[in-house]
Amino acid sequence: MSDRTNEKNINEQTKNENLEQFRKEPGEFITTNEGVKVTSTNDSLKAGSRGPTLLEDFHFAEKNAHFNRERIPERVVHARGVGAHGYFQAYKSQSELTKAKFLQEPSVKTPVFVRFSTVAGFRGSPDPVRDVRGFAVKFYTEDGNYDIVGNNIPVFFIQDAIKFPDLVHALKPEPHNEMPQASTAHDNFWDFISLMPESMHMIMWILSDRTIPRSYRMMQGFGIHTFRFVNEQGKARFVKFHWKPLLGVHSVLWDEMQQMGAKDPDFHRRDLSEAIAMGDYPEYELGVQIIEEEDEFKFDFDILDSTKLIPEELVPVQPIGKMVLNRNPDNYFAETEQVAFQPTNVVPGIDFSDDPLLQGRISSYPDSQRHRLGTANFENIPINKPVCPVNNDQRDGFSQYNIPTSKVNYFPNSLGGGCPMAAPENMGGFTHYMEKMQGHKIRERSESFSDHFSQATLFWNSLSVVEKEHLVKAAQFELGKVMNKEVKERVVGLFNHVEHEFASSVAIGLGIPTPTKEVIPNHGKSSPALSMENQPKDSIKTRQIAVLANDGFNSSELMGIKRVLEAEGAKIKIVSKFGGMIKSADGKEIEVDRTLLTTASVLFDAVYIPGGEKSIASLKSDGDAIAFVNEAFKHCKAIAATGEAVDLLMNPGIKGVNIADSQQKFASDQGVVTSRNPGDVEKTAKEFVNAIAQHRHWMRGQKSLIPA
Ligand code: HDE
Q1: Mean pLDDT, rounded, for 545-565
Q2: Going by DSSP bridges, is the β-strand pair 672-675/581-583 parallel, antiparallel, or unpaired?
Q3: Mean pLDDT, rounded, for 341-349
Q4: Percent of the chain at pLDDT exceeding 70
Q5: Ligand 1, closest atom to CA 368?
Q6: Can you tell me which atom of ligand 1 is nearest the CA of 367?
Q7: What ipTM score was computed for the predicted complex, to two decimals?
Q8: Whole-angstrom Cα distance, residue 659 to residue 703?
Q9: What domains are there in the chain, each with its CATH number?
Q10: Is 158 in the pocket of ligand 1 (CB under 6 A)?
Q11: Residue 266, C-beta contacts closer than 8 angstroms, at least 6 positions apart
Q12: Among 75, 444, 509, 695, which has the highest number of CB atoms less than 10 A from its own CB?
């Protein structure tokens, strides 16, 4: 197999080919790790068939010893994740801003590996939880690996890396009983937060719907810190990174997310890997906010403070390229678990800023990888291996499996012809940006980091009415799980510095005294780009639509609606009482994808019920089917019914939908589309498409009469 690591022309396939030499098909016979064929792996070697096992059984000993070592420490945070391969392509050369090679040539597809994750839960915890999501991207560039290790929220809890261990201790399950799992709704977390006013901006984001995303394919990513771009002429500018998903930014309801966690704990990783397997490749645009060095101090916050964002209205996000995820990993452990992301990984043209949170991360990640992967040679692991040559004299240590052939392992040397030698900048050597430094050695925070509330208020002001309602409820939930009353009161006290009305609403839900007066007057500013409601909603591509049907369904209605939805890129799943095939009234058969027992409405974006007397009669008397529709309604999803199915929606068991008037003119503005007329299928389908594209009909959520 050729060693691609010495090739210069990097393209989308380079990393894949580079991995190919490590892929391993199962051979014909079982062997030991040393390659000796094994006659049986069912019985250990014994003294007589009922006798004790013999020490001599090297196959048994090896098999067990390997098994005993199959776990490595999980990531201390972001333990639960899912990975995908893909490529990145720049829209045009960014040479004006940076000399980073992967941002120069639009025809080049730079291979990438991405890992999405939750933060708090252990490796086996459910995906659907309220949590920040990690959004880590490794670019395998011709100048070495470059990583953007970001989150789906543009700010962070703390300003200085030295507080990170405290933050993580507080947010993880409490140490005495290791509860609760994958949740911050507990005393320790909120106790810490109540004493950390700098976390208030991030807390507003955490309590918003951003932390309950519909899909990894439908959430933004942010580099958070301010970095530097440096061009060929040595000119530097500050830069912030943004990933924007082309499918839009969408979240679900908290009640729904909790149920999803029980019905399918793997929901988000399944959603990602199934989409990729079906050729629906997730795409994200990379955008940058550029700040000239001379503008460093022109904002009313410090651009080195990671608890602040730069509103897009002040500095627009310029799209510079697109990432496409088009291949699932072959093996979870080898790739997704062993991948080692490090903000430390920069390439010429990209550099750090003095953000004290970023500065701390630079040394922390490699240290974490050495521990987790058990060796300083973790870059040898195939998924971490750069696609360009790696040359240095750091040779020995656990699991070195390159074979350095030169006898010279020091620099400077003459015996090895001086190689490998230092690369001057014009030969691609990384030169740290010559930032001018001055200052006293001091443990102190800059005064410019001291406003902890203005941007928290900005975020609140930017949300829609429904988003605000969700946020208040989330705060009532999280703090409602806190046992200590003083902690609750302290947090609400901090909320009162963000927004008086918000703090008062939370207090009412908690049954604690409402703050008596406003502490800081609301500045009234907002940033529309922060609200998910203002994100485009124009497509139903890859949306999962449940079709509820039993024997006797109306085939022309079902097929008519299905055809239109599929033409728009939606995915249809037939959900029925039993598996196998169901037969329409006119004798046509269709295969059932899921039964009411094995799925739930929380795993879908919308529900369609075709008519057909017999099918509807059986659905009407099926509690699971009724609950399916009720739940979809409660979770504000688009619902369509044709023919006799309109009667199903009128069924007294179906709460909410039949709030509509007796003319069966259902609240179509609320995403319920109905038609009894067989000639209307095309029109109904189009209305349904529009209703699904809205993602959710949130206003419906205000009606709380649905028992589901
Ligand atoms: Fe991380 N973080 N972090 N973090 N982080 C880790 O690295 C750390 C921070 C983020 O899919 C760890 O490999 C410190 C901010 C992601 O593999 C560890 C500080 C942001 C991932 C670590 C931060 C992140 C990690 C755990 C404060 C968003 C998962 C094991 C200075 C910009 C990457 C590991 C993946 C993982 C340390 C703060 C994002 C311990 C010290 C801010 C997406 O090294």
Answers
A1: 98
A2: unpaired
A3: 98
A4: 95
A5: 44
A6: 44
A7: 0.97
A8: 10
A9: 33-70 (4.10.91.20), 81-384 (2.40.180.10), 457-534 (1.20.1370.20), 544-702 (3.40.50.880)
A10: no
A11: 126, 127
A12: 695
